[in-house]
Input
Amino acid sequence: AQKVTQAQTEISVVEKEDVTLDCVYETRDTTYYLFWYKQPPSGELVFLIRRNSFDEQNEISGRYSWNFQKSTSSFNFTITASQVVDSAVYFCALGRRPNTGNQFYFGTGTSLTVIP
Amino acid sequence: GAGVSQTPSNKVTEKGKYVELRCDPISGHTALYWYRQSLGQGPEFLIYFQGTGAADDSGLPNDRFFAVRPEGSVSTLKIQRTQQEDSAVYLCASSLVHVGTGEETQYFGPGTRLLVL
Output
């Protein structure tokens, strides 16, 4: 079965602090994809990153960085020097290859509040 | 715009009525998905189209829900005899599936907020 767990329901940080959002996934597939999406108060899900299961290289994009560890089935997301505009709900998702079904499985989200 | 669009943005209906929700995917995207998101939850898969056909409709909760994509572009999600538990945000996403690797990234629309009274 496919499952994504985001244990942190809500996080509050003061502006300029670093914050890490946790994501743990379960799958029996050998090839899969992991995603992070941001959902601001406006409601539209914004794509942030996709990571293929065979590529464990960590990635940095500006203030955002992602740590993918297959050994622990985790795909954590860190925001450095947080800003008020980072306040949103963040979703981690697991995607499958077409030959095993194209469903995306989303976690329940982590609501991040950055306090000025 | 170049993104996924959904209409209406909000829909209020009475229990038992029929509703249609429309999704315009990104031009050229062959794959289209419908999700349902309840308050405080992540999106829940409903149905997936590759071209005109529903490749996977295993997420549809019951036979009151149906979706079509007759020309492989615009899709309509149809809900018959609406119930209060159908109240949610209905999200549409489209993607371009890489033929060789199957890789894809889904891009979401703003959603339709459905309220069944």
